[in-house]
Design a protein that fits this description.
This protein has 495 residues and is an alpha/beta fold. It has 17 helices and 15 strands.
């Protein structure tokens, strides 16, 4: 570079002749012309594309394979190695490196998409799910987390769930609206199956029954992005990444799901004080503008539970997401409705709740309530020690003592012990356990004796008779009792 500058200075400033410059610096005339025409060395520029003799006839086919990748699932697209194998099967004689270099050139020449900056109107939101890991109850668990982000204020709501499903989707919306204090008037989504059953057009969708129920309750306008166009909801895409890196690093160590969600809620509230680049105010202040443009929360609460109509099996079980939940045996073979939330599974028959279980998020498990099978046990006492519903039933040790004593004293001791268990259908376990403990002081702790301890001994409180709504009794008077009348009756009786 220094010699380049010296040559240019000698000719252009000192004004020596070009011929003299060639002699002084020992360069060719053409080289001198190139130096004088360029202030810096221009570098090597290929004037003609290098001939690719082997791959040239196959570039069209290679372009077809690359184009086909756009319509294939991400995990089933052609790799460069697979492209090379396809070309070899069709007669290509070149090596893998030749194909790899050609693919790199094609991708380099492909035009890059340019995006239009969009306005961020108050009252609008975007929704997406992300994935992370957390240590829950000492166990490293994969979780999915729901994020709703307001495009104007960038305020966000984050909530974790065991799985992306309908009840989680609905529950998250209810909690997000409560957190923000209003309903966004327009919410953007991708084409998740928990909200969409059919893609009709570029942005038109047929909604699932559960999501349609949510929209009908809150009356917001759902907007669906085009397929594989995540940039149409870029605000929430950034919020998903930010919340994962800032709210879940290091990996949260919590006792249960409720504690993890409480931690995330605290993080969302703390994030309200942050001011983003390009914004003049904090999220908390801009949130008020979102609230003015949004919709008011409905007066009645939305039920986010998923409804499933089914029939109880011959073993008094109902199936939900590959898991079996028990119902009282009286409802076997009967139609029931399951109302599933993230935390519980409630089962109804004729609008009456007949069973409730804690939600199980594992697969192909059976969740029993032993009390549901007690009436069947009364008819089939031989199944007491072999029935699955009673396996591992965690009863207080006093129950085992009562069983041993009854079976040692009576020929029908097992049946009598079953009668003791039947008390659990009418009384809570805590009360029955206390009664059993007291009954062990007796020689024969039978079911009838234990039941006597469960019946309240105190007299019910006297009820006050109110005249409200009984105006026809307002004029009735009851005379005070004359106690002397009893003395006169006794005199008459002895006369």
């Amino acid at each position: 570079m220094e010699q380049w500058t010296e040559i240019r200075r000698a000719v252009l400033v000192e004004e020596i002749s070009k011929r003299a410059a060639c002699r002084r610096f020992g360069i060719h005339w053409d080289t001198l012309e190139r130096i004088l025409n360029n202030s810096a060395p221009p570098g090597y520029v290929r004037t003609q594309a290098r001939e690719k003799s082997v791959i040239a006839p196959w570039l069209g086919r290679l372009g077809e394979l690359l184009e086909a990748n756009r319509d294939l699932p991400r995990k089933q697209r052609y790799t460069v190695k697979r492209m090379w194998q396809v070309l070899c099967e069709e007669g290509f004689a070149g090596g893998y490196t030749t194909v790899k270099d050609a693919v790199r050139e094609i991708r380099k020449e492909a035009p890059k998409e340019v995006f239009m900056p969009l306005s961020q109107r108050p009252g609008e939101a975007q929704v997406d799910f992300g994935q992370a890991v957390a240590r829950i109850g000492g166990r490293l668990t994969k979780v999915v987390f729901f994020v709703m982000s307001l495009v104007h204020s960038d305020a966000m709501f984050v909530m974790v769930f065991p799985r992306e499903c309908t009840e989680a989707f609905l529950e998250a919306h209810v909690q997000a609206f409560a957190f923000f204090g209003f309903v966004a008037n327009r919410i953007s989504y991708d084409n998740t199956k928990v909200a969409v059953t059919q893609i009709i057009g570029a942005h038109r969708r047929k909604l699932t029954a559960a999501f349609a129920r949510l929209v009908g309750h809150y009356l917001f306008q759902p907007y669906f992005c085009r397929i594989r166009r995540a940039n149409e909801k870029g605000v929430v895409e950034g919020a998903v990444k930010y919340s994962r890196l800032n709210f879940m690093v290091p990996v949260p160590q919590v006792a249960d799901w409720a504690e993890l969600n409480a931690h995330l809620l605290t993080c969302c509230r703390s994030d309200m004080t942050r001011r983003l680049r390009g914004k003049t105010l904090s999220k908390q202040v801009l949130l008020e503008e979102d609230k003015v443009a949004g919709l008011a929360l409905p007066a009645d609460r939305f039920d986010p539970r998923r409804l499933v109509s089914t029939t109880a099996t011959s073993e008094a079980l109902v199936v939900l997401d590959t898991n079996d939940y028990s119902v009282p045996v009286e409802y076997g073979h009967r139609p029931v409705v399951i109302k599933a939330s993230v935390q519980t599974v409630s089962i109804y028959h004729a609008d009456r709740e007949i069973a409730r279980h804690t939600r199980c998020w594992e697969r192909e498990k059976q969740i029993f309530d032993p009390v549901h099978y007690l009436s069947l046990l009364d008819r089939k006492p031989g199944s007491l020690d072999h029935a699955r519903p009673f396996a591992g039933w965690d009863l207080p040790e006093d129950f085992a003592v009562v069983r041993r004593r009854l079976e040692a004293q009576r020929e029908d001791g097992t049946r009598e012990y079953i009668r003791v268990l039947l008390l659990l259908r009418d009384y809570p376990l805590g009360r029955v356990a206390i009664a059993v403990r007291h009954a062990l002081r007796w020689t024969a702790p039978t079911a009838d004796a234990i039941k006597q301890l469960l019946i309240p001994s105190e007299r019910p409180e006297l009820k006050t008779f109110h005249l409200a709504g009984r105006e026809h009794l307002a004029g009735v008077t009851v005379a005070a009792t004359d106690l002397g009348a009893y003395s006169r009756l006794r005199e008459v009786a002895h006369a």
